[in-house]
Amino acid sequence: MHTGDGTGYSLTIKKHYASETQKRKDKVKEYSGTKAFVYSFKLMDIQSKMYVAFGMSLKSEKEAFDRAMEMLKQIDVEIQSVRLDKYYSSPSYVDRFGKAKVYVIPRKNATLRGSWKWKDTMKEFVENTIPFLEQYYLRNNSESGFSVDKRWFGWQVVQKRDDRIGTALTCTGVWHNLMNLYPT
């Protein structure tokens, strides 16, 4: 069982990811006007609370997701089920997980156009809503993982060079996993 989600880290003290997200009503995820945020997507194993794949991007959360999926291919981990938020509620994201069961809540304008996997996911949501939502809301593990990371390591990445920003976020993921291996 896995859960995945994206978040942003501030690269400048003048803008805070959470408050900017509220101002723009989640459109900050697509905003690429200035280099103010770094986007991170992490895929977490629910039982161990450890990250199995992660990606970062200075452009978009989608690009961070794509990089995490590339990492997942390289390490050859088999995903049996995954929970994703509404940002990933579309046939193209659902199809990326192959045979794995995907739990997403459909957007307001969702249609049944798309693959059979998408149609089956939407059918499962409608016919077995309560069990589906019980599984979906296990994704709160991603939110709490991000919250812990940001309390431990801060909401800001203080590096300026792109390669060092990536290294800082990778270190955050590694430290997260180490802390879960050896809890205090």
Order of SSEs? EHEEHEHEHHHH
Shape: globular
| Content-based structural category | alpha/beta
Q: Kindly give the count of domains.
A: 1
Mean pLDDT, all residues: 83
Q: Could you tell me how far the N terminus lies from the C terminus, measured between alpha carbons in angstroms?
A: 24 Å
The percent of residues in helical segments reads: 40-55%
Strand content: 15-25%
Model regions low in confidence, pLDDT < 50 over at least 5 residues: none
Radius of gyration: 16 Å
The number of helical runs is: 7
Assembly state of the chains shown: single chain
Largest sheet data? 5 strands, mixed
* Number of DSSP strand runs: 5
Going across the biggest sheet, name each strand in turn: 3-2-1-4-5
Name the features.
17% strand, 184 residues, single chain, globular, alpha/beta, 5 strands
What does this structure look like?
It contains seven helices and five strands. It has helices spanning 17-24, 61-75, 91-95, 116-127, 129-136, 140-153, 162-181; strands at residues 2-10, 37-45, 51-57, 81-83, 101-103. It is globular. The chain starts with a strand and ends with a helix. It has one domain. A five-stranded mixed beta sheet has the order 3-2-1-4-5. Helix 4 packs across helix 5 (129-136). The protein is an alpha/beta fold and 184 residues long.
Write a brief caption for the model.
The protein is an alpha/beta fold and 184 residues long.
Topology:
Layout: E1 2-10, H1 17-24, E2 37-45, E3 51-57, H2 61-75, E4 81-83, H3 91-95, E5 101-103, H4 116-127, H5 129-136, H6 140-153, H7 162-181
Parallel strand pairs: 1-4, 4-5
Antiparallel strand pairs: 1-2, 2-3
Helix pairs in contact: 4-5
